[in-house]
What does this fold into?
Amino acid sequence: MQTEVFSELFPLLSTANPQTLEWLLNVAIDHEYPVGRAVLMEDAWGNAVYFVVSGWVKVRRTSGDDSVAIAILGRGDFFGEMAILDESPRSTDVIALSPVKLLSISRERFIQILFKDPQLHHRMLQLMVRRVRQINQRLQIRTSPPAVKLAHTLVSLGESYGQESDQGKEIFNIPFKDLAEVTEIGVEETTKIMEKLHEKGWIAIDNVNNIIYLINFKQLMNLAGKV
It folds into this structure.
């Protein structure tokens, strides 16, 4: 992978200097995981930060035999940084929703480069603050109607990871159970709302290619209260 591609793919690295990008590429390790494979297990000590080159993963919290999806991440995002920075066991695990390609950089090397490149350090702080704001937004709409909450989830996924196509923004066909858990509504409610959005022509689901098309993104944004 060229350093320019590396920088464009990952917003975290958009301000890193060329020397940093080259160094990171040289020390990064490639990983590939099939659907359903655990990428990180809960309570494992943080020893690397991971970058999603392609595919989709879900972050989930496990309690006994129960697990709940709390976030969906796609191409260009990263995870594992919190356990690295506070040197504590991870509080969640990460599961591949689709075939996924990752790059990992060891804790020691990543912290080393953060100290060497102030721009990367600052950019990482910016993105972590943005994640906190996203959590605050989810808390603010917790009492909103289920349709508003689900639209908010779809819009957020579209804004963060959607690929433009002739039919609108494309996102992965996330299982309704995971969509429901991330949105904090029931699976039955999620199914009914998605069917309603499909009837309105706001979304389309391609089960063969595992794609959800966000056709009328503006209307979804209006429903989510984002405009």
